[in-house]
Amino acid sequence: MTKRKLLLVTVVALLVVAAGVVAVVLTTRGDGSAAQPCDIPNSVREQPVSAKTGPTGGGVEVTEKGVSSSGLASMGAVLRNTSDHIAYRTKITLKVIVSVNGLPPGPVQGAPMTMEIPVLLPGEHVGIGRTLVNVGGNDKVDSADVDVQTTTWLPNGALGSFSPPTDTYESTSRVPASPPADAVRYTEKSTNCRALSSRRTAVVFRDASGKIVGGDLVPPDGKGNPAGSPQQPPASPSCSPGERSTWIVPLQHIPQNTDDKRTELYSYCDLNVPRPDVNDVF
């Protein structure tokens, strides 16, 4: 046998062996289907810088905002990433000005209300919501603003095939109880290749004209305040692959001027849960 033929035989043999190894790897799943690697990382290195300006222009900006000014007042807003980079763990704070007993307006005392949006892909819109302060009588919320602070800018592809879940509003049930027991049900669909970590669900309420009239950030899957009426449990946890019908219970009664069908929901899915998690602090 010539050296050329010997080399050819050796290469073919190696390819056959390699193919056999791959076949073993791809058929190790119990359901008989081929195992596919998931390219969504478990974590990325955070390097917080200003979220207002991306590496090549654009940034995270507030496109809409609105408040409810009675009862347990709340705020809703929508932010957009206008850069060509991924904004990872974007921190924002809410600055609330209130009038108390007819006195001149002033800021709410105490630490600023800080929240974190896990992922904002280039061009993506994401809603935020938060209860603000309990007002009544002569008290009122004079204004509330969103201060965009820091983020970690990542190049496209840094999160693999990560895509934000799709949340579709289903229905609202209102229950006159204390604590509030209103429930908002929605369908969440995730096409991601692995289960991600839920860091709450944001809800934005709008009136019939489309104006934002409040919002909240609460645990999904019926956690938190108990729902006032029976709710079908989700088929799987929030932020896991697949589709599920689930619900949230806002911390406040839903504003009376809310047009239910305009309600928007945003699942906050992250690679993992930071400790401590600012989204769990109220």
Mean model confidence by pLDDT: 84
Low-confidence stretches: 1-32
Rounded to an integer, what's the Rg over CA atoms? Answer: 24 Å
Q: How many alpha or pi helices?
A: 1
Measured by DSSP, the beta-strand proportion falls in 35-45%
State the distance separating the first and last CA atoms: 79 Å
Total strands: 15
Structural class by helix and strand composition: mainly beta
The topology string of helices and strands comes to HEEEEEEEEEEEEEEE
Main β sheet profile: 6 strands, antiparallel
The amount of helix comes to under 10%
Net shape: globular
Kindly describe this structure.
By secondary structure, the chain is mainly β. The protein is built from one helix and 15 strands, in the order αβββββββββββββββ. It has one helix at 3-26, and strands at 49-50, 60-67, 71-81, 86-99, 106-107, 113-120, 125-135, 140-148, 150-154, 166-173, 183-190, 197-206, 212-218, 242-248, 264-270. The strands form four sheets. Strands 1, 4, 5, 6, 8 and 9 form a six-stranded antiparallel β-sheet that branches. A hairpin with a 6-residue loop joins β4 (86-99) and β5. It is globular. The model is unreliable at 1-32 (pLDDT under 50).
Fold blueprint:
Blueprint lengths: L2 H24 L22 E2 L9 E8 L3 E11 L4 E14 L6 E2 L5 E8 L4 E11 L4 E9 L1 E5 L11 E8 L9 E8 L6 E10 L5 E7 L23 E7 L15 E7 L12
Antiparallel strand pairs: 1-9, 2-3, 3-7, 4-5, 4-6, 4-8, 4-9, 10-11, 11-14, 12-13, 12-15
